[in-house]
Specification:
Radius of gyration: 28 Å
CATH topology of the largest domain: PH-domain like
CATH superfamily of the largest domain: Pleckstrin-homology domain (PH domain)/Phosphotyrosine-binding domain (PTB)
Oligomer: single chain
Number of strands: 10
CATH class of the largest domain: Mainly Beta
Structural class: alpha+beta
Number of domains: 2
Largest sheet: 8 strands, antiparallel
Distance between the termini: 113 Å
Strand content: 25-35%
């Protein structure tokens, strides 16, 4: 090999690039700050929504003597929304918190027991409708996979979504709830 060939050969060889750790760490810190900012903005939005819904009255608690149990259901509570607006989540008083649920239907109304979240009671006179649906704020299922109960709280109509551990129970709940609602509304109209 001539000295000129050796020089050309040496100029073509490169060593492996050295990792620029300062740049990598900078990108990781920037990404972490961005994720923290997005989380903080989501949290502030949730709190702001709760403030806007501050006119919603406190949730009712179950009476001491609710009457005989008609149906029970064990499953998940997926949240409450403004009736007819399945994406307008209600977060005031913990109604936006997903949780396990134990539903009990009695002659007095619907008792919603949620471990780790606020329990509430919907009196029979506040119930408006029960139906099967496919979604509610942040949860979409197959057609008819969600039991949605429409009820009045204060001056608002709300939809609350429930999913039983045994989806076959949904139809019985819809039929029983709607029969009770119709029977109660007939009594109210007859009393006028």
């Amino acid at each position: 090999m001539t000295p000129l060939t050796q020089l050309t050969y040496a100029a073509e060889q490169k060593s492996a690039e050295v990792t620029d750790w300062a740049a990598r760490i900078g990108w990781l810190v920037g990404l972490a700050l961005f994720v923290a900012l997005v989380y903080w903005l989501m949290r502030e939005g949730w709190k702001w929504r709760g403030t806007l819904q501050g006119d919603l009255p406190e949730l009712l608690q179950a009476p001491d003597e609710p009457g005989p149990v008609r149906l029970t259901l064990s499953g998940r509570y997926h949240g409450s929304t403004t009736a007819g607006q399945w994406l307008d989540r209600i977060v005031a008083h913990g109604l936006g918190t997903r949780s396990r649920v134990e539903l009990t239907l009695t002659d007095a109304g619907l008792d919603v027991v949620r471990p780790g979240a606020a329990d509430f009671f919907v009196p029979l006179k506040a119930l408006r409708e029960a139906r099967l649906d496919k979604g509610i704020a942040g949860k979409v299922l197959t057609e008819g996979g969600l039991l949605v109960v429409t009820w009045e709280h204060g001056d608002r109509l709300l939809d609350s979504g429930f999913r039983s551990d045994h989806a076959a129970e949904h139809n019985e709940w819809v039929e029983t709830l709607n029969q009770m609602i119709n029977k109660d509304s007939n009594k109210t109209e007859g009393a006028r």
